[in-house]
Amino acid sequence: xxxxxxxxxFSTVVERGSLSAAARSLHMSTAHVSRAVQMLERRxxxxxxxxxxxxxxxxxxxxxxxHGVTPMLASLDESAVRLAHARLAEGGRLRIGxxxxxxxxxxxxxxxxxxxxxxxxxxxxxDAPERAxxxxxxxxxxxxxxxxxxxxxSRSLGKxxxxxxxxxxxxxxxxxxxxxxxxxxxxxVALRMTGTPRxxxxxxxxxxxxxxxxxxxxNVAMDDDATRIAAAVAGVGVIQAPYVLLRxxxxxxxxxxxxxxxxxxxxxxxxYQPDRHMSRRLRAWIDWSILVVGAALEAPRPQxxxxxxxxxxxxxx
Length: 317
What we know:
Blueprint: H1 3-16, H2 19-26, H3 30-44, E1 49-52, E2 55-58, H4 60-84, E3 92-97, H5 100-117, E4 121-126, E5 140-143, E6 153-166, H6 168-174, H7 180-185, E7 190-193, E8 203-207, E9 210-214, E10 221-222, H8 225-233, E11 238-242, H9 243-252, E12 256-257, E13 265-272, H10 280-296, H11 306-314
Parallel strand pairs: 3-4, 3-5, 7-10, 7-11
Antiparallel strand pairs: 1-2, 5-13, 6-11, 6-12, 6-13, 8-9
């Protein structure tokens, strides 16, 4: 069961007042409903239900959580309805700005679904930045950067962890950092986006309400995610990037997580110009992205335990 499906189940539990009532409404077993709620609790690391023997009731946090996700679920339903009625969307060309790394990890795996739904729409994917929306050379930009222009519409597709990783080779000679500050001080190379020509983007860490923005010395800075990832895999240094860009390397062990209890969240979003007369093809792209790309962002993290990292230091030279 996907996280979004589990959210729907829990929302029904709150609406109906109990696990058994929700199970009857959803035509599921009570055990299946209970497992869905437990999956959500593990994901957010907080109790949605208060359990006492055979009796359960919705916790205060659970009610607040349901209140927060209900509008999101309603928005997904609305997008699904619009997509169902958009089969007659006009043809024509859409110019989508997206980095190569974000396209290959998030967009391309699900793009065939859009082509099936809207075969008359011609897509052009380019590595166009946000400013391309202002000069009219792009219709929409998919990014994880916060918009710098207040005039643009920003639509979040979901939040993902901002992961900090390094290769086994790098960790083997530089050691494991015990605190984020060590990356800026003891680790001599940190791979970061260039941000502006004069000011590289800072590394961000967050835990229990504490937020650290580190601007230590950077020996290598670049503005292309795919190059940053390749450099990190080669052992050049530490990288911080959205988890969705790194999950393949984490799953294979090419990169290992660092300080994963300090990973903040970052929003993957669509940027576009406000327009009362938005084309039906752009409206279809936005609704499809909310429904399909948003769901693709929910893939769980691969589990990399301490034992995997420990073998680095046991290996012979």
